[in-house]
Amino acid sequence: QVYLTGHPQTLSLVKELDAFPKVPESYVETTATGGTVSLIAFTAMALLAFFEFFVYRDTWMKYEYEVDKDFSSKLRINIDITVAMKCQHVGADILDLAETMITSNGIQYEPVIFELTPQQKLWHRTLLLIQNRLREEHSLQEVLYKSVLKGAPTALPPREGTDSEPLTGFHQCIAAYNFSHRIDHVSFGEEIPGIINPLDGTEKITSNHNEMFQYFITVVPTKLHTSKVSADTHQFSVTERERVINHAAGSHGVSGIFMKYDTSSLMVTVSEQHMPLWQFLVRLCGIIGGIFSTTGMIHGFVGFCFDIVCCRFKLGPYKPREVSPVFFIATKTVTKGW
């Protein structure tokens, strides 16, 4: 009994708390301007929701920095360099800071032709163009990170036909030494296809047989985690110097090609991030609700201004109407008694 009696009162209290009162359709008046604004609002909602879906599908790279605590692993060096000299005149060694030879094993010497074929020249020009764009637009590196393993190969294309005799190079020098060289690839750590390193495609041409080329490299350990690959690799920055060795002019040193590298104490973790689904839904609701509220306020403000102008200048619905004359016929009723 008590429950049945209190139920209508509770329901009535809940109805009073309704923040979304319903207006009867008989009280709602539709207009052409309102329909036009609604059509524009729905179109804007659809377009922004469509573009927001592409933003949801896109990813970005997140960079995190921490101290490198790995002291036991060994650094792998990948190098492919072509020198304009015969193999018997070329030697390569790896030295430490005390200039003590660490090893000279693992280095392979292959006789090649220094002059590039037309196809290889096209590849080389394209690689230099990409390198220039990377120096100007650093955000392109993120594109390379996200497109690894599916991009075009970054190695020098093979020469068409290897029957020709390997040449010393296109420089005919009197001396046997010519340190003109082309760096096809230099990287540290695990090789990742599709990544273009700062020294890839570097070419130095000299007519002086007694010249020193120096590359000062700072190697930064990098962990790369994307949807396509997860690898431990290394980024590096490089500073280039070159000078002619002339003892008589006070320019001392040893002619050759020197790469001096040092490892950074910081480690960079590069991970690919994606917008979560709940954030996409929140942004979508914000777009729909924001456009709906904004167009409603704009429509109301424009209507208010329109009413003021029409009322001031007696236009539209505020225009005075002409009143037609009304004629009344008076009649008199006489009642006679008997």
From TrEMBL:
The chain crosses the membrane at residues 36-56, 280-302. It is a multi-pass membrane protein. Residues 14-100 form the Endoplasmic reticulum vesicle transporter N-terminal domain. It is found in: Endoplasmic reticulum membrane; Endoplasmic reticulum-Golgi intermediate compartment membrane; Golgi apparatus membrane. GO terms for biological process: endoplasmic reticulum to Golgi vesicle-mediated transport; retrograde vesicle-mediated transport, Golgi to endoplasmic reticulum. InterPro entries: Erv, Erv_C, Erv_N. Residues 172-298 form the Endoplasmic reticulum vesicle transporter C-terminal domain. It comes from the Eukaryota. Keywords: Endoplasmic reticulum, ER-Golgi transport, Golgi apparatus, Membrane, Transmembrane, Transmembrane helix, Transport. One of its GO terms (cellular component) is COPII-coated ER to Golgi transport vesicle. Belongs to the ERGIC family. Plays a role in transport between endoplasmic reticulum and Golgi. This is Endoplasmic reticulum-Golgi intermediate compartment protein. The gene is ERGIC2.
